[in-house]
């Protein structure tokens, strides 16, 4: 199942029955309810996958051996290159020079030139756009970039909404590993609605500029203050737009009663 993937897959993701990087033995790790990743309690991985991208070369599976630190890279040179490539694709200016920057990132990861795999990439803008989106997803996996990319591409309502799948880690017994584990299984349901593309303006900014209007569909809290002798009465009213726990409750109810998942979740705020 995990054979013949591109090198960045093995450098970033650890899968069931794989060997942990830099261990002294070739003993496989089992990521399931009864495996070496956990126990028959709730302390085990829910997806069937672990991250190895930032693993220190000297690390082990011993949870008490946490003596290594890695520096976090906020902005990699690869991001500069792929940002430039994406901009050139949108301008319709994907030439050999731009492909060279793109391939510099791919070659570093042990991947062939993009035009070798997709010969039409220079002449087909839609294909190039899809490929650079995919390239960024793979190259920047687990680097806190994908969420922002999905938002600016306006695909988050598809990629960040609905069921999220992994392997079936809740096998019935140790003996059922091969027969039950390798089944695509939903482990959670996520909600991302159209209105969530817009984020609220910080209240501190609005206080500095009272003429600044808040983003439509943003949570709003109205306050009323009244003084009675030496007491102060404060009344607050919040329009939370079904975000957070209340939205999750409505969403879960819809799933329980086999309703459309977004029923009641697209209401417009009453405060605007």
What does this structure look like?
This protein is of the alpha+beta class. The protein is 32% helix and 13% strand. The strands form 3 sheets. Strands 1-2 form a two-stranded antiparallel sheet. It has a two-stranded antiparallel sheet with strand order 3-4. Strand 5 and strand 6 form a beta hairpin. Helix 2 packs antiparallel against helix 3 and helix 2 runs antiparallel to helix 5. The longest helix has 15 residues. The radius of gyration is 24 Å and the shape is globular. It starts with 6 loop residues before the first helix and ends in a 16-residue tail after the last helix. The model has no long low-confidence stretch (mean pLDDT 85).
